[in-house]
Batch of 4 targets.
Target 1
Amino acid sequence: MPIKSSFLQLINGFVIFSGAILLLYTIINEDANVLFKVFGVILIMFGAYRASSHWVEHKDDHLSEEEE
């Protein structure tokens, strides 16, 4: 299952990175639409939520590996 977990973490990181790119675009281009800012913040928050919920589910995985 670690391959699936790392793939999901990669997707979460990509979502966060995409939101950051949108926000940087709106900072650089002052004529950008406000919806880019809103969508960028939503992507960052969604990615952070998914990543943190994944971390909470797997926070004790290292304990089970040490027992084996």
Target 2
Amino acid sequence: MLMKKDWFQYTLLILVLVAGVYLYRLYPGSLQRFYIVCATSILYVAWGIYYHLMHERLQLWIVTEYLLMASLVIAFFAFSLKLG
């Protein structure tokens, strides 16, 4: 089973995402929250690339998918935080 074999990678991803949510709730400023969302998104993309690279199935469409998801999250938060 894939989950049993990759428990460390999934635990790391969950920790990164939970830390992002925790820091987001900790800091009230819009700009700080935006930086936290950007950093969490970058770590999400890095995790995805590393994970697929370790399983020898990294392809351009997979990287593109992770980048698009991260960009979508960043854009959503940029519009909802009312920066500026």
Target 3
Amino acid sequence: MLRVQAGDLAAFELLIERFQTMLHGLAISMLLRPEDAEEATQGAFLKLRSRNGQTYPVVVPSTGFAVLGQ
């Protein structure tokens, strides 16, 4: 997490790879609709990224996951 907070893109991608499935599963169990769960999962990672003041988009090819931001 310290590397993510320091703006390390590779560390952020690793964080997504490790926790995306678990977070998405939790979101589905709470929200019931896959579309809502996907949006919530992306939103959670976006909040982590934006806390660092970074504006780069992140796409993790191994998962197909994207955090695009603004």
Target 4
Amino acid sequence: MNGSNRNTLTTVIVMAAALGAGLGLAGCASPHLGADFGQAVRQDIAAQVANPDARFSGVIAPGSNPSRVAAAQDRYAKGKVIQPSSQVAATSVAAAPSSSSGLVQ
């Protein structure tokens, strides 16, 4: 072996030994984690789980008719949804407020 190959081989061996020692020491290190480590992830997962037996216990929203809502849900479940009739959006122009209203124009 000539000197150049010997230096290259020695360098490779030293680097491999240093890498092995570094990996060995990293495996021995114990992380210092708090008692609540991972709590945010657990809370996020819990917030994303739907309640399969959810019940509404509040007041019915004004304007909703329970029998119509039940019929619509039934039609949806059976795939017989009533499509809305086509409507054209109306465009209107509001009159400018009077100067006595105090609004800036």
